[in-house]
């Protein structure tokens, strides 16, 4: 089937599903494959549950005239998404970076939706499947689409750019994330810069943090760049006012008091201000959007529980974000400061070195208590309390509960699921 024909069917049934547990009536089911499943085998179930059509790539599963047989289901999904994006009126703003992508995406969407009809990546569905699904959520009246792009190896952002064909883009930062796939900090810079490479090659506009030397160097001769800075008056001036615990920033004469903790969230807010200004959103509306944004999903949340004030930042972790969280925690005012730090994943051969650096950093801070959790932290050379498993930590806390009125930081990679600590406090 030609993509143009499939697109006509999509316009009649403008909802796509890839999971039979989430089938919506009259959707199109795409039978994707994974290491441990074959979506083709679920096509009949999808139709029975209310899907209008099922796109499959194995002929033996074509049990109905509502099954559309294609050569490769994933590639068809991706081609359909690009076709739909090209035939929409929406402008696409792409976003990538090592840290802060999802928060920045949410802030940008909150700001732009004050004036425009927008759509944005749901959650962190930012890979070779998530980006197409986001593009296919563009409506006929969508004006701006904010598309988050994630990557853990070279050429991935380049591929996602060719799918989404962005008109604008922003890289949050170049931190030590996914070192296992990128190989080095230089590899990370090359990989994330593929967004800027695409935009400059197609004469599109880029947004930058002009206080980031890497971004300035990468784009020093490019004209269509728009940046914010707290130092360089050639760019839109935005300054950090305070971050104890919530970020306050100043743009022009307006102070914006966010509900985001940590100075590391300053640039995330500043990017949303800059992009809002570029698209002529009133500064009063920008202020309202940022001040009313509340983080969720274990991202920099502040939780009060049993007399403790807990900073829950357990959605993910890498050496850069871990250091930023600890530096910020060290500067915060509070009593009985206690940190629960979990292993950082996807660091490849640098894992031992990077975990030791964090352990050394923690030893230099004046925290009351620190608990290191996971196999990687267990292997560090430090006198800090270490627990190879979460269960061992649980047993320890049963016998040695935290002192009342503690200020607590919880930080670790997603696989550590450290939000479980809330049940122990």
TrEMBL record:
The keyword Ribonucleoprotein does not apply. Residues 299-414 form the Mur ligase C-terminal domain. GO terms for biological process: cell division; cell wall organization; peptidoglycan biosynthetic process; regulation of cell shape. Pathway: Cell wall biogenesis; peptidoglycan biosynthesis. It comes from the Bacteria. Keywords: ATP-binding, Cell cycle, Cell division, Cell shape, Cell wall biogenesis/degradation, Cytoplasm, Ligase, Nucleotide-binding, Peptidoglycan synthesis. Its main location: cytoplasm. It is an enzyme of class 6 (ligase). Its EC number is 6.3.2.10. GO terms for molecular function: ATP binding; UDP-N-acetylmuramoyl-tripeptide-D-alanyl-D-alanine ligase activity; UDP-N-acetylmuramoylalanyl-D-glutamyl-2,6-diaminopimelate-D-alanyl-D-alanine ligase activity. Coiled coil: none annotated. This is UDP-N-acetylmuramoyl-tripeptide--D-alanyl-D-alanine ligase. It comes from Pseudozobellia thermophila.
């Amino acid at each position: 089937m030609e993509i143009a024909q499939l697109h006509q069917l999509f316009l009649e049934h403008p909802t796509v599903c890839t999971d039979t547990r989430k089938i919506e009536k009259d959707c199109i089911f795409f039978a994707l494959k994974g290491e441990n499943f074959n979506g083709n085998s679920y096509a009949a179930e999808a139709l029975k549950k209310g899907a209008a059509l099922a796109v499959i790539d194995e002929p033996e599963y074509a049990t109905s005239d509502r099954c559309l047989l294609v050569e490769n289901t994933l590639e068809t999904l991706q081609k359909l998404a690009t076709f739909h994006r090209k035939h929409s009126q929406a402008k696409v703003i792409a976003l990538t970076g090592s840290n802060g992508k999802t928060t920045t995406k949410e802030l940008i969407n909150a700001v732009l939706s004050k004036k425009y009809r927008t759509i944005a990546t749901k959650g962190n569905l930012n890979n070779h499947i998530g980006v197409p699904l986001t593009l296919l959520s563009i409506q006929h009246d969508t004006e701006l689409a904010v598309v988050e792009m994630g990557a853990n190896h070279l050429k991935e952002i380049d591929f996602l750019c060719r799918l989404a064909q962005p008109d604008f883009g922003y890289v949050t930062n170049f931190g030590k994330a996914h070192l296992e796939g990128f190989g080095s900090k230089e590899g990370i810079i090359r990989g994330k810069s593929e967004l800027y490479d695409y935009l400059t090659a197609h004469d599109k506009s880029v947004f930058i943090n002009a206080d980031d030397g890497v971004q300035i160097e990468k784009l020093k001769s490019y004209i269509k760049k728009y940046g914010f800075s707290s130092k360089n008056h050639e760019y839109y001036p935005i300054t950090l006012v305070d971050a104890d615990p919530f970020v306050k920033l100043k743009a022009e004469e307006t102070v914006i008091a966010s509900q985001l903790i940590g100075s590391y969230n300053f640039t995330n807010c500043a990017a949303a201000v800059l992009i809002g200004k570029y698209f002529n959103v009133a500064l009063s509306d920008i202020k309202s959007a940022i001040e009313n944004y509340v983080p969720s999903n274990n991202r920099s949340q502040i939780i009060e529980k049993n007399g403790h004030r807990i900073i829950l930042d357990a959605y993910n972790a890498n050496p850069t974000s871990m250091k930023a969280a600890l530096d910020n925690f060290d500067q915060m005012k509070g009593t009985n400061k206690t940190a629960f730090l979990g292993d950082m994943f996807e660091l490849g051969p640098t894992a031992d070195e990077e975990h030791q650096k964090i352990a050394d950093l923690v030893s230099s801070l004046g925290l009351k208590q620190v608990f290191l959790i996971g196999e990687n932290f267990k292997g560090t050379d430090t006198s800090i309390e270490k627990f190879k498993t979460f269960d061992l930590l649980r047993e320890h806390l049963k016998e040695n509960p935290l002192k009342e009125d503690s200020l607590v930081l919880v930080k670790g990679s997603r696989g550590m699921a450290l939000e479980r600590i809330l049940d122990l406090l």
